[in-house]
Amino acid sequence: MPEKEEYVLYRYTPSIAAAAVVISVFAILTGLHTYRMIRTKLWFCVPFTIGGAFELIGYIGRAVGHSSPESLVPFIIQSLFVLVAPALFAASIYMTLGRLIRAVHAESLSVVRVSWLTKLFVCGDVFTFFIQGGGGGIMASHDPDKVKLGENIILGGLFLQIIIFGLFVVASIIFHVRLQKRPTREAYAGDVKWQKMLWVLYAVSAIILVRNIFRVVEYLGGNAGPLLRVEWPIYVFDALLMASTMTVWFAGYPTLIRPAKSLSSDSESGMQLPVSDRGLSTK
Q1: 39-87 tens-digit pLDDT
Q2: Domains plus CATH for the chain?
Q3: Which residues are registered as beta bridge partners of 13?
Q4: How many CA atoms lie less than 13 Å away from 77 in the CB half-sphere?
Q5: Cα separation, 154 vs 151, whole angstroms
Q6: pLDDT tens digit sequence for 5-39
Q7: Residue 28: in which H helix or E strand, if any?
Q8: Cβ–Cβ under 8 Å, residues 257 and 103
Q9: How far apart are CA 53 and CA 47, in angstroms?
């Protein structure tokens, strides 16, 4: 039998230059998202903003790994925080659909009862978050058996996250088609840019799905696999895709889906909101 290849934290020296660029990008994006979330009081975007902070912390861990590639703590930080950040992005994405459905008063067109829609997807997302986090914690070891167990747990979490995302996209498409066929008065009015928001949801969901598929392939290859022998894949298929997710979300921010206390007027622009949007539930 061929001898098992020794497990190592990195099979290269992490690039300080690449990490510095990505840290700067995520610092700017997280700052912008934090400012916009506070300014618009869209508190259901808190998980998304925290996800940006997780990306930032994770790549700081990679930067530290440049000078101490054998050190376990920065390796755990970069591995764990970068791994679970998309699950936090997903939580805000899931919550947006329920609010959008209520914003156009189209609850009857949802494939799942709206009161359960957000709960189901967010609970599933939280479950995958803890699965991946637990797997990442188990992987933080030089014991090959524990590493393999951690990889398998992470793979399970990633597969489950892909399934949940797929179901979410299906639910979104069914609602989209139904609303196009039977538009409500609020959808006709155009005060809520529901079509734009749905396309934003599709875009960020697709990007995160591609990233998750990359991570599945990466973990299937194992520690000695081709995707872990070089550094560029994590920047192209993870950092770049997650920065794109934050950019798209910022450009298509759900500013017309407001918490109940701010529905009666737009305090920032001085413009009165449509009567049909007042009293909108934030659930």
Answers
A1: 999 999 999 999 999 999 999 999 999 988 888 889 889 999 999 999 9
A2: 16-263 (1.20.1070)
A3: none
A4: 17
A5: 5
A6: 567 778 889 999 999 999 999 999 999 999 999 99
A7: helix 16-40
A8: yes
A9: 10
